[in-house]
UniProtKB/TrEMBL annotation:
Cell wall formation. Catalyzes the addition of glutamate to the nucleotide precursor UDP-N-acetylmuramoyl-L-alanine (UMA). It is an enzyme of class 6 (ligase). The keyword Nucleotidyltransferase does not apply. This is UDP-N-acetylmuramoylalanine--D-glutamate ligase. It comes from Oceanobacillus chungangensis. Residues 312-425 form the Mur ligase C-terminal domain. Its main location: cytoplasm. Residues 116-290 form the Mur ligase central domain. Pathway: Cell wall biogenesis; peptidoglycan biosynthesis.
Length: 449
């Protein structure tokens, strides 16, 4: 197991297990650190608890007693645990540093890191960058918020390999030294305010991705996003903009025919198979990051002429009796659904609803012109029904879950319609994850055949 670089702490508290906490605890123990693990939802009989105890960790489960902070020098926090947690509040009062496992992963990496964040498009862009490098015969691994724990990828990463990381604002709050060679900032809009409380705090979390960069590094950023263009004025890295609206001599851009990087034609725009105007932004960001890390135009072209989407992100599922089914379960906020709706000109049946975070949906109104019907579920179905009334949509159906929504949508559809799952809400009122919700949609579609 690799040794940690520049980690001057001897006693760590790992707060929250799951995959990232377990990986962090194992690395710390292997580096002869004293480790205490605390997870309120775990039990003494859990396999991972017994495993960590056998490795020498002190494990406290079933509660969050303040005593877990005694003699602790640093906390490795699960990204999902809010900062209002009493343990975190007390730790901050005691000036105990709080990090996420991304910081530990960074201490294990010898090669280059590409870090990618944004309110939307992270997974698509991360996947594109990784595949562009692979198709260009560049050694690469992918991890982070995309499902593979960064520490696990860092453990086996060779010096010549690039680590591509998808990073959430939750993860970026817990970094101090993390410094990607290439940072990518896709977009920033109002999201996760139940966690961050204010837009200012959310923006600061996202901008942590370039906080430690120097003039030897690159920052790929969305030149069409005013929040981002304001924020990157303070960056020390070399700025590499991307834009769908204007020519850029020093970045990635498009005209009516071509995708460019700086003054070089990369490939023809009409060869791209990924649908959605918003995905052009993701593509430009990916082209810039990949080119900076050695990708070839041919490698990029191989990806963009075949890549049709990431699972649960405007993913084409099937065409049944002339109806086109798309799974956009990852659309957990308004902007994601707005972008999904702009991808289609055909009559669309929108399947939406989920966790009620207290927000309204009126910002969707201008995007509903092609929506002929709505099938609604979850805590927000009443709010979305009211939105449908405001938009003049005559056909609206209220159902209990995604499985019923697919059956109802198919029953009221015609050949040529798009049936789109784009919930505009988090899944946690009914499903553990957006992936689980999307999988139910896929299964329900396949049952129609």
């Amino acid at each position: 197991m690799k040794k940690l670089n520049d980690f001057p702490f001897s006693h760590a508290l790992v707060l929250g297990l799951a995959k990232s906490g377990t990986a962090a605890a194992k690395v710390l123990l292997a580096n002869d650190k004293k480790v205490r693990v605390n997870d309120r939802n775990a039990t003494k009989e859990d396999e991972v608890v017994m495993q960590l105890q056998a490795l020498g960790a002190e494990v406290i489960v079933g509660e969050h007693p303040l005593e877990v902070l005694d003699d602790i020098e640093i906390i490795v926090k699960n990204p999902g645990i809010p900062y209002e947690n009493p343990i975190i509040v007390e730790a901050e009062r005691r000036n105990i540093p709080i990090i996420t496992e991304i910081e530990i992963a960074y201490s294990l990496v010898e090669g280059s890191i590409i870090g990618i964040t944004g309110s939307n498009g992270k997974t698509t862009t991360t996947t594109l960058v990784t595949e562009m490098l692979e198709k260009s015969n560049q050694p690469v691994k992918v991890a982070g918020n995309i499902g593979i724990v960064a520490i696990d990828a860092a453990q086996s990463l060779k010096k010549e390999e690039t680590l591509v990381l998808e990073l959430s604002s939750f993860q970026l709050l817990g970094i101090n030294k993390f410094r990607p060679k290439i940072a990518v900032l896709l977009n920033i809009f109002e999201a996760h305010l139940d966690y961050h409380k204010t837009m200012e705090h959310y923006v600061q979390a996202k901008c942590n991705i370039f906080k430690q960069q120097t003039s030897d590094d690159y920052l790929v950023y969305n030149a069409d996003d005013p929040v981002i263009t304001d924020a990157v004025r303070h960056a020390k890295a070399l700025l590499i903009p991307f834009s769908t609206k204007r020519n850029l001599e020093n970045g990635a851009w498009i005209d009516d025919e071509w995708i460019y990087f700086k003054d070089e034609k990369v490939m023809k725009l009409n060869e791209v198979v990924l649908v959605g105007d918003h995905n052009i932004e993701n593509i430009l960001a990916a082209v810039a990051a990949a080119k900076l890390d050695g990708a070839t135009n041919e490698g990029i072209r191989k990806v963009l002429t075949t890549f049709s989407g990431v699972k649960h992100r405007l993913q084409y599922i099937d065409t049944i009796d002339g109806r086109l089914f798309y799974n956009d379960s990852k659309a957990t906020n308004l902007l994601a659904t707005q972008k999904a709706l702009t991808a289609f000109k055909q009559p669309t049946i929108l399947l939406a609803g989920g966790l009620d975070r207290g927000n309204e949906f009126t910002d969707l109104l201008p995007y509903l012109s092609s929506v002929k019907a709505m099938v609604l579920f979850g805590q927000t179905k009443g709010k979305l029904q009211e939105l449908g009334h405001q938009a003049g949509i005559e056909t609206m159906e209220l159902v209990e879950n995604v499985d019923e929504a697919v059956k109802k949508a198919y029953a009221i559809s015609n050949a040529g319609d798009v049936i789109l799952l784009s919930p505009s809400c988090a899944s946690w009122d009914q499903y553990r994850t957006f992936e689980e919700r999307g999988d139910m949609f896929i299964q329900a579609v396949h049952k129609l055949v």
